[in-house]
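I am writing to request your help with a piece of structural work I have in hand. I set the record out below, with my sincere thanks for your time.
___
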Amino acid sequence: MTVAAGDNTADNVSMPSRWSKWTLIVALATAWACGSVSSPSRALTGAWGGDHISITVADSTHLEFDCAHGDIPASLLLDGGDEFSTNGTFVREHGGPIQLGVPPDSHPAVYFGSVAGDTMTLGVRLTDTKETIGTFTLTRGAAGRVVKCL
């Protein structure tokens, strides 16, 4: 059987069109880029504490460190591997009164880590200076042991 180019007769229905191939390619690429449906993100909530750190996670996340604090404008979301990485701020504090007109020592930071059961490992790195603040181990529901600057 001979089919002329561009012939869209019933005899040519079994041959996929160029448009349907591109539609399939775009759909597969979109599905791949969006990740797996079987591993959705899970939000952490509640209080977490450890040596030199205390975290409160709700709609946003607040962190207290020895002589510092941090904020993340969202809750911490775990990926399918129970890991997280998110941006926030890290502010160094100092002893004595807060001085009016002096800007805080605030830095953009990335907070990253993982959770296994009720234990969180958290790393903090300043993105503007590339300084690593440290790695902390926290327990869900535990009070943090934080010493504030006097």
